[in-house]
């Protein structure tokens, strides 16, 4: 499903070299238009003038490089700001689709970052994890409300369509510059350690660590939350299931780091989920 990337053909830069005049004490000047993408990288002029003052030419060249570096930094900052705005907009879309889904995603992001930090994820991986946790259900905008809010059990056909939401989410986000890796975490957040998940049937460490984190936390939050077709589980029952399925459905190390966090935030979890610790099956 990944789109193909078009690469512009390489063009040899034209160069002009003046003939060396033996009566003059200078080297020929060479001007090259380097590859430029729009206004990002303007042509850089490399000149060796009179042999008596090469330092001045190096200084000018250094100034030009500094200007390019500043432009690149500014564009990177603009892209980061744009990415943040897009994540907020997509999260707002989840709120409009289903308020509980939006709150659920925000809670997942906080927990995921906590667990990711304890597991030693890099700053870059943490950033992708945050986006994936916030937007892991973005693909559900492509699932009919009649299925999402159905009070009874889904039919086989409805369940197969529901299982497509990770792919729908990936299809949207992988096209956004800077969200390619986060989209892969979303694509695989319903995989299982034993290989019985979807959509690719990955197993163990074939599954990205970010996907494994989102998988366990998403499942726990879903277990304790009220849904149109069932009430949320009691806290201890949800913890028991999370622990008992470690190593088969869930990554054991993720569960190990998450369970203490869930216990520490038990009251807030159930208040946000619309249920209580004393809820019964």
Descriptive notes:
By secondary structure, this protein is mainly α. Helix content is 54%, strand content 0%. It contains 11 helices and no strands. It has helices at residues 54-97, 99-118, 123-135, 145-148, 156-162, 165-173, 180-187, 209-224, 235-244, 252-264, 266-273. The protein is elongated, with a radius of gyration of 27 Å.
- Using the 3D structure, state the CATH architecture of the largest domain: Orthogonal Bundle
Question: Please, what is the average pLDDT?
Answer: 78
- Helix and strand content put the structural class at mainly alpha
What percentage of residues falls in helices of 4 or more residues?
A: 40-55%
- Rg of Cα set: 27 Å
Q: Tell me the span between the first and last alpha carbons.
A: 42 Å
Uncertain parts? 1-22, 24-52
How are helices and strands ordered from N to C? HHHHHHHHHHH
Look up the CATH topology of the largest domain: Hypothetical protein af1432
Proportion of residues in β-strands: under 5%
The helix tally amounts to 11
CATH superfamily of the largest domain: Hypothetical protein af1432
Number of strands: 0
What sort of overall outline do the alpha carbons produce when their principal axes are compared? elongated
Can you tell me the number of structural domains? 2
CATH class type of the largest domain? Mainly Alpha
């Amino acid at each position: 499903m990944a789109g193909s990337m078009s690469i512009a053909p390489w063009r040899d830069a034209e160069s002009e070299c003046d003939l060396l005049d033996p009566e003059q004490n200078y080297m020929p000047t060479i001007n090259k238009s380097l590859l430029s993408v729009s206004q990002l990288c303007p042509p850089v002029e490399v000149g060796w003038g009179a042999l008596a003052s090469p330092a001045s030419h190096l200084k000018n060249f250094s100034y030009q490089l500094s200007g390019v570096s500043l432009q690149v930094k500014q564009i990177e900052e603009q892209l980061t700001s744009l990415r943040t705005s897009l994540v907020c907009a997509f999260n707002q879309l989840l709120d409009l689709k289903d308020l509980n889904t939006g709150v659920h995603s925000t809670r997942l992001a906080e927990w995921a970052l906590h667990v990711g930090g304890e597991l030693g994820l890099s700053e870059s991986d943490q950033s992708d994890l945050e986006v994936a946790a916030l937007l892991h259900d973005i693909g559900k905008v492509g699932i009919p409300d009649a299925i999402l809010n159905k009070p009874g059990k889904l039919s086989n056909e409805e369940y197969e369509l529901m299982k497509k939401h990770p792919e729908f989410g990936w299809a949207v986000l992988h096209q956004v510059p800077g969200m390619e890796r986060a989209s892969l975490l979303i694509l695989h957040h319903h995989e299982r350690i034993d290989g019985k998940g979807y959509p690719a049937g990955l197993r163990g460490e074939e599954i990205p660590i970010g996907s494994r984190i989102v998988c366990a936390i998403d499942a726990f939050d879903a277990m304790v939350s009220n849904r149109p077709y069932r009430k949320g589980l009691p806290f201890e029952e949800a913890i028991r299931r999370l622990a008992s399925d470690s190593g088969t459905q869930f990554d054991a190390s993720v569960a190990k780091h998450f369970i203490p966090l869930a216990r520490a935030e038990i009251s807030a979890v159930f208040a946000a989920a619309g249920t209580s610790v004393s809820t019964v099956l």
